[in-house]
From TrEMBL:
GO function term, MF aspect, one: protein N-terminal-serine acetyltransferase activity
Highest rank taxon of the organism: Bacteria
Pfam families: Acetyltransf_3
Cellular component annotations (GO), alphabetically ordered: cytoplasm
Annotated ranges, domain N-acetyltransferase: 4-179
Protein name: GNAT family N-acetyltransferase
Swiss-Prot/TrEMBL keywords: Transferase
Length: 207
């Protein structure tokens, strides 16, 4: 899995080794959203910077340790000009049968507003649809998170209802989004190349 590489015109995405994971954790500790806001359904950015960095480090190692073909989370470090700028996740549950993936991501505050979020999600979607033969991709974002919703809509996602979750002890509403293969193909704008997939394809439950 550490040999898997996704490349776009500006980015490289790969499963981080320990030095890159340390860099990724430092980016998270530096902040990924404005103070006072919580754009995530799991409030993982609460805490002191060193606690946030440690949580990212431990969580990503946990995704590797818990990996199975029937339930997996691919957490990729996103590199821009050789520097880690954020993380892009691609998740699958019973993917071999359902052919459905879910995405999640974040960027460090200094790297936001440059279109990198769209480009890194496009890379993950290319892996899912072109590489693994997914039928659809799903995502969700809070109604007051226009950046995340904007990325989804630029890539062709359509609204798929809403859901309510508890965040910091309060009820919040999230917009669910869905992208099928036909709309993904119609909205492809980012050139993506994938390396090293064949060696790890069975790990995704991809027959």
């Amino acid at each position: 899995m550490y040999g898997l590489r996704l490349r776009t015109p500006r980015l490289e995405l790969r499963l981080p080794d320990l030095p890159l994971l340390d860099e990724l954790s430092s980016v998270a500790a530096g902040g990924v959203h404005e103070p006072g806001r919580m754009p995530f359904s799991v409030a993982w950015t609460d805490g002191k910077p060193e606690e946030v960095g440690r949580a990212v480090f431990q969580h990503l190692l946990g995704t590797v340790a818990a990996w199975s073909a029937g339930s997996w989370t691919l957490s990729l470090a996103v590199l821009h000009e050789g520097r880690v700028v954020g993380r892009q996740d691609l998740m699958g549950e019973d993917f071999g049968t359902l052919r459905e993936v879910e995405t999640g991501s974040w960027l460090g505050l200094p790297y936001q507003g440059r279109g990198l979020g769209t480009e890194m999600r496009a890379a993950a979607l290319h892996l899912a649809f072109a590489g693994l033969g997914a039928r659809c991709a799903v995502s969700a974002a809070m109604l007051d998170n226009p950046r995340s919703l904007g990325v989804s809509r630029r890539l062709g996602y359509t609204d798929d209802g809403v859901k309510t979750e508890s965040v910091r002890g309060a009820a919040v509403t999230l917009q669910r989004l869905r992208l099928d293969r036909e709309r993904w193909e119609a909205h492809r704008r980012v050139e993506v190349t994938v390396e090293g997939l064949e060696a790890c394809r069975p790990l995704f439950g991809d027959a």
